Amino acid sequence: MSYLRMICVCLLFSIYCSAQFFEPEGAQVNLYFPQLADGGPIGQQWRTSFIFFNPNSTSASDAMLYLYDNGGNPLSLDLGSGSNSTFAFSVPPQGTVIFRSTATSPSVVTGWAFADATLPLQATVLFRNSVNGVPVVELSAQATLPSSIYRSPASRQLGIAMANIYSQQSTSVRITAYDASGSQAGSATLPLGPNNHASFNLFQLIPGLPDNFSGSVKLSSVSRIDQFVAWTLNADSSGVLSSLPPGRLEWPISHWDRIWLVFNKVLNAAQGLQSSFGIDLTSSPPTLQILFDPVINAKGSSDRVTVYTALSELISDSPSELAFVIAHEFGHVIQGRRAGPGGTLVPYFPPVSPQFAGIETDADQTGLLLSLLAGYDPYAGAGALAKISMATGTAGLGAQGYIDYEFTAGQLGSDPHPSWGTRIDLMFQLLTSVCSNPQFSPTCQLYKSIVHPTFPGGEPLSTTAPSTANKSRSPTKAR
């Protein structure tokens, strides 16, 4: 199958498999639940339910649910099929899986939970309180992500739950209350050991608040690089409980969780095309390595994709740009698995131009294909390359080549490593050549009408191919 036809298949798949491209808000592959409660005497009993929905219309999502007690140890609960602290499950395409605790403990057990999945899931946790066997209230909260700051409306009785996401280190969270005028009304610091959990009312930590206190609360990491998960519950002196909106600080985002989300979506897209690539990405998928060194880079080899968080930080305002970077590295994974004699890396796509045949332009085309198939905006490739160029000048995607292979330009015949501008230009040509084809222009127009409805008609993903007569190209080596 030619690269042109594969791009077109990708476009069609992205449009019509809308669950892959248009996911519910909050769908993630890492899902954190800052509170769970189970059991208690018959006069005040709690049950927790976890609901997982898979919005993808073609692929199942395999997942694991882990339960932890207040001390960070595995917590065994009966969620309907026997007592355990870990639960493996699979959510079919557009399917739902529900776990409900059986409330067998004579006293209330509290803790927190975490789930990881191979594809994004939308998850909700329900808390049902029953008195003498009669349900009296049920509260809900979406799964969340970590943050270094959390804000919430507050009363003196506000319920707060939080957990330390780190399994090997302690952290501390500062709780600061503000009155209705915005003035600080009190504060306290709560230490949390590895994977520890705490749940309390605001007045228990800040006892000096007046009975009629009404204001807000700020939860913040004492060490700003640490993150935690939190949830708040509105309460008043009469005992009425109600849910509150999420208060997690959205940006800076949790780079660890975003990298995992994008990686898993791109992996699923690559597995869907593995027969076209002529390789196996299912029985032995590449692993993900996340490094925290101060390096703006990413790497790909036949068995691993490495992403530095510094690169994620550079492009943190655009998941689609991160998707292109990771998908580009998947291009190197594919090249490595198609390696020729002596470990020579083998590009997959026919070159856009013989002058620019090579592993980097090949990986760019693969990145464009896979990021689009994974449900991300194809324009983001240009944004990612431009930001890396601006921030580093000479560093780039897969700098210094592979970590597992050695090669020279001569092995590939031609590997000029075009400049940033040329690489962007080649991707631009690829999009316009696809969308100017009458066979596929309706799909491009549909995509543009949904994602970029106010774009000019002559832009890529439209039916008119712009002139390239005045475009210059430079064979300058840049990586």
Describe the model.
The protein is an alpha+beta fold and 479 residues long. The chain has three domains: 26-143, TM1070-like (Hypothetical Protein Tm1070, Chain: A, Sandwich), CATH 2.60.290.11; 146-251, TM1070-like (Hypothetical Protein Tm1070, Chain: A, Sandwich); 254-451, no CATH class. The protein has helices at residues 3-16, 18-21, 202-205, 255-272, 274-277, 309-314, 319-337, 359-373, 380-392, 409-412, 420-435, 441-451, and strands at residues 28-38, 45-53, 61-69, 77-78, 83-84, 86-91, 96-100, 109-131, 134-142, 149-155, 159-164, 171-179, 184-192, 197-201, 214-221, 228-235, 241-243, 287-291, 298-300, 304-308. The strands form five sheets. Strands 1, 2, 3, 6, 7, 8 and 9 form a seven-stranded antiparallel β-sheet that branches. Strands 10-15-12-13 form a four-stranded antiparallel β-sheet, with no helix packed on it. A four-stranded antiparallel β-sheet has the order 14-11-16-17. Helix 1 runs parallel beside helix 8 (359-373), helix 7 (319-337) crosses helix 9 (380-392) and helix 8 (359-373) crosses helix 11 (420-435). It is elongated, with a radius of gyration of 25 Å. The relative contact order is 0.11. Residues 15-19, 395-416 and 463-479 have low confidence and may be disordered.
